Each structure stands twice: as structure tokens, then as C-alpha cells.
From TrEMBL:
<keyword id="KW-0805">Transcription regulation</keyword>
<feature type="domain" description="AP2/ERF">
    <location>
        <begin position="27"/>
        <end position="84"/>
    </location>
</feature>
<dbReference type="GO" id="GO:0003677">
    <property type="term" value="F:DNA binding"/>
</dbReference>
<dbReference type="GO" id="GO:0005634">
    <property type="term" value="C:nucleus"/>
</dbReference>
<keyword id="KW-0611">Plant defense</keyword>
<keyword id="KW-0539">Nucleus</keyword>
<comment type="similarity">
    <text>Belongs to the AP2/ERF transcription factor family. ERF subfamily.</text>
</comment>
<keyword id="KW-0804">Transcription</keyword>
<feature type="compositionally biased region" description="Polar residues">
    <location>
        <begin position="1"/>
        <end position="12"/>
    </location>
</feature>
<feature type="region of interest" description="Disordered">
    <location>
        <begin position="118"/>
        <end position="154"/>
    </location>
</feature>
<dbReference type="GO" id="GO:0009873">
    <property type="term" value="P:ethylene-activated signaling pathway"/>
</dbReference>
<protein>
    <submittedName>
        <fullName>Ethylene-responsive transcription factor</fullName>
    </submittedName>
</protein>
<comment type="function">
    <text>Probably acts as a transcriptional activator. Binds to the GCC-box pathogenesis-related promoter element. May be involved in the regulation of gene expression by stress factors and by components of stress signal transduction pathways.</text>
</comment>
<dbReference type="InterPro" id="IPR016177">
    <property type="entry name" value="DNA-bd_dom_sf"/>
</dbReference>
<keyword id="KW-0936">Ethylene signaling pathway</keyword>
<feature type="region of interest" description="Disordered">
    <location>
        <begin position="1"/>
        <end position="30"/>
    </location>
</feature>
<keyword id="KW-0238">DNA-binding</keyword>
């Protein structure tokens, strides 16, 4: 009896730790990270075993936004979203109708458009400071250089 209690108590914390690690590696719903660092998004079609591929992205935010767009179009306003504050009327492909008449292709197209737009913004945001500093650095004179005859103040 004691050995059964010992084993059950030792496996429970291990399972909890595994679940915690999985949650730490998946910051948002509907996405996962590939071995090489890209983030991918996909969603299961309602009442089917098939999945809708939503794309591969550089940032987890872009993949999560693509997922949000797809799940919103499949399930409507009751969908559980990663970023509910960013869903707009233009993201709604249903046009007031039910989600059943939407094709997987139209959902994939809209979700990949949103994800690509966010991915481009995220990438530009990370590279913008380096580019702006580069432009300023080219204006600065080299203080170690001896002045030539064309730079005299005569």
C-alpha cells in the first residue's frame, strides 16, 4: 500500500512539470515552434479530422494572430482568442451569416494575410533601430583621419 502511494505521488509532480514546460514553450493557443525556430499555426476544422494550415511565421505573435483570425471566422464572437482586442469587422469573412458556409481556403487566405502583415511589422520593428543608427553613423566624421586640403576653412 505504501509503495502505491509513493509511486502515485512521484509521478504526479513529474506530469505537472511536463505540462508546465509545454505551456512555457507555447505562449499562445493554436501555435507551435519548429525545431529550427519558426512558429507555425493550424486549426482543426469543425466536425472533421482535417486541419487548416495557417502558415509559418518568424514570431509567435504573428502565428497567434493568424490563428485568432481563423478561429474567429470558424466559431464567431464566442471563440477563445489570444488577442481579442485586435479582431476587427474586416477580419470577419462571414458577413453576418453562419460560419458553416466558409471554405477552408478562404479562412486560410485571410489568416495568412493577417499573419504575414503582423510578421512583417514585427520584423521591421526589430530591424528599424539598426537601420536608423546606420544612417546617422555615416554622417559622423572620422576623428582619427588627418584633414585633407579640401576640408580647410580658408
Amino acid at each position: 500500500m505504501e509503495s502505491g502511494e509513493c509511486c502515485s505521488s512521484s509521478t504526479s509532480p513529474e506530469k505537472r512539470k511536463q505540462r508546465q514546460n509545454q505551456r512555457d514553450n507555447k505562449p499562445y493557443k493554436g501555435i507551435r515552434m519548429r525545431k529550427w525556430g519558426k512558429w507555425v499555426a493550424e486549426i482543426r476544422e469543425p466536425n472533421k479530422r482535417s486541419r487548416i494550415w495557417l502558415g509559418s511565421y518568424s514570431s509567435p505573435v504573428a502565428a497567434a494572430r493568424a490563428y485568432d483570425t481563423a478561429v474567429f471566422n470558424l466559431r464567431g464572437p464566442s471563440a477563445r482568442l489570444n488577442f481579442p482586442e485586435f479582431i476587427t469587422e474586416e477580419d470577419d469573412l462571414r458577413g453576418g451569416g453562419s460560419g458553416a458556409d466558409l471554405s477552408a481556403a478562404s479562412i486560410r487566405k485571410k489568416a495568412t494575410e493577417v499573419g504575414a502583415r503582423i510578421d512583417a511589422l514585427e520584423t521591421a520593428h526589430h530591424h528599424a533601430p539598426a537601420e536608423s543608427n546606420w544612417g546617422r553613423a555615416s554622417v559622423k566624421p572620422d576623428l582619427n583621419e588627418y584633414p585633407g586640403p579640401e576640408s580647410s576653412d580658408d
